[in-house]
Description:
CATH architecture: Orthogonal Bundle
Radius of gyration: 18 Å
Structural class: mainly alpha
Number of helices: 7
Number of domains: 1
Strand order of the largest sheet: 1-2
CATH topology: Arc Repressor Mutant, subunit A
Helix content: 55-70%
CATH superfamily: Winged helix-like DNA-binding domain superfamily/Winged helix DNA-binding domain
Distance between the termini: 24 Å
Strand content: 5-15%
Amino acid sequence: MRLYDCINFQLSATQNMVSSYFKARLAPLDITPSQYSLLACLWDEDMQSPSQLSQKLNLDPSSMSGLVSRLEAKKLIERIYSKEDKRSVNIHITGAGLALKPEIMKIIDDANVVALEGMTDEEHQIFVKCLGIIQGNMQKQKSEN
Length: 145
């Protein structure tokens, strides 16, 4: 198989280009695409555990820990420890983290328009469905191994 026909190469090359574009747009806010993803999870549902967030974002625990630490240093989130069990922690979005939502969402919406330019709504739905199939296939392989 030629390199350019390999699904891994196609997905990686596309991901690198899209990620670079989003990273550049978010840079003035000192937010990375990964940090945006974590914030978006907390905008949807505050007070989630690191393991819940890891699952939603498909990140390993060590990556999640670093992501939480960086956003906590920026005062955009905070760790809330259980009074009953100090080992139990939830991640809470702060007022500063909430205040960034409108500006970040405008950047994300605009970047999505650029990335999807020339694609019809139907093509976009098919594209998302195809990515879901690939993810499902890879998850199935992961659980079988």
